[in-house]
Automatic annotation (TrEMBL):
<keyword id="KW-0547">Nucleotide-binding</keyword>
<dbReference type="InterPro" id="IPR006336">
    <property type="entry name" value="GCS2"/>
</dbReference>
<dbReference type="InterPro" id="IPR014746">
    <property type="entry name" value="Gln_synth/guanido_kin_cat_dom"/>
</dbReference>
<keyword id="KW-0067">ATP-binding</keyword>
<keyword id="KW-0436">Ligase</keyword>
<keyword id="KW-1015">Disulfide bond</keyword>
<dbReference type="InterPro" id="IPR035434">
    <property type="entry name" value="GCL_bact_plant"/>
</dbReference>
<comment type="subunit">
    <text>Homodimer or monomer when oxidized or reduced, respectively.</text>
</comment>
<comment type="pathway">
    <text>Sulfur metabolism; glutathione biosynthesis; glutathione from L-cysteine and L-glutamate: step 1/2.</text>
</comment>
<comment type="similarity">
    <text>Belongs to the glutamate--cysteine ligase type 2 family. EgtA subfamily.</text>
</comment>
<comment type="function">
    <text>Catalyzes the synthesis of gamma-glutamylcysteine (gamma-GC).</text>
</comment>
<protein>
    <recommendedName>
        <fullName>Glutamate--cysteine ligase</fullName>
        <ecNumber>6.3.2.2</ecNumber>
    </recommendedName>
</protein>
<dbReference type="InterPro" id="IPR011556">
    <property type="entry name" value="Glut_cys_lig_pln_type"/>
</dbReference>
<keyword id="KW-0809">Transit peptide</keyword>
<dbReference type="GO" id="GO:0004357">
    <property type="term" value="F:glutamate-cysteine ligase activity"/>
</dbReference>
<dbReference type="Pfam" id="PF04107">
    <property type="entry name" value="GCS2"/>
</dbReference>
<keyword id="KW-0317">Glutathione biosynthesis</keyword>
Amino acid sequence: MDEVTDEQSLCDDLAGQCKPRDQCLIGIEHEKFIFSQQDHRLLPYAGRVSIHTLLTEMQRFGWQPTFERNNLTGLKLDGAAITLEPAGQFELSGTPWVDLHAVYQEMLEHRRQLVELADEMDLGIMTLGFAPEWTQQKMDWVPKSRYHIMRDYMPKVGVHGTDMMTRTCSIQLNFDFCNQRDMCDKYRVAMALQPLVMVALANSPFADGQDSQLTSYRNYVWLHTDSARCGVLPLVLSPDFNFAEYVQRALAVPMYSVKRNGVHIDLAGRSFRDMMQGKLHELPGEKPTLKDWHDHLNTLMHDVRLKDHLELRGNDSLTLEHSMALAAFWTGILYDDQALQKALAFIAGCDVASLNQLRHRLPQLGLANSDDLPVRGVYNASSLLEALRYATELARKGLERRQKRDAQNADESVYLQPLQAIIENKFSPAEQWRERFHQQWRGDIKAIYSHASF
């Protein structure tokens, strides 16, 4: 057992995650809501038509089951996994791939499998960032011990923590880094540019059956979940940022739990530093392992977080086409040296206060008036729309330079087209949903079940 007793070993562990440039891969994690077409209720964990049944049926495609306390809570297949969020949100944690063409094929196959089973079980699969009308009271919690610890702890640190757990769905992108400098550059660019695609691809305007008056209610919820581990991480913009500084920040964040014998032990609010000294009364004398450290890093939920890779977490759950557009945006910028250096120059004047102010405005922003939205102190641009266009063009050129082609000889920039169309029309998915809700659906949220599902 690799026992952890000093901070240097934690720094060394992060440094050990560096990859050679030709081994840097792209990973995608995609969450979605599963509901019954019969009554539009979110699928419960157990029962004849349930998440448990869906996981069981997925095994016909070669997926192998994973359990906690004899409860079926996930699946795995080669380098991919299917996991469950607290209220049964269905997440594909995809295999890391060398290019976007392979990412797309995996996403397409996952969708095909889900559609086959949804047709058999009369289910709907919804890709929105926030539950359009489901309330916590009508949701069934997945039997995972960690989630029950978090459910009890969340109300102590924020007003929307349990909403975040049960009523949100997101898409996350994972990217590797080559060395400490490369990690810092990619982290800074990802943290600073994240607001642009969060606005452009906002996809959660509804809550409790109504127009929330926001474009991303999910992002509003995240701002009120836990200020110690969510939102912007100011440290990243510091010139002194490095692995050691991130370790210090992570150690300052309270723990949730550690896993022993397959079950999580409640350590909510405890200090990882104290555990390194064997001072936790729940586990007297016991010191953490590197696995415990990795689990703790996974509880930091900033818009971008560092683990054995960089995880970009700011976006609402999206359709397949918009998911690939988001992946293309980040791949073109982070995995092309020219684009990355130009992005660094573009955010050179970014200060923490201005970025944080913009981040807190994001949930209400749309693209319709984005050419009038100032971004002074964040980007070297006159408006949010100008900044978005510039960054998207950086991504396009970066993707073309990568020269990763599919069987039809198309390079990866083809996946950027849906985002380019959104920018051209100045109409985010959320703004499109809102227009339909008020003009075509006449305020009836029930129409969302046929229009936002597959």
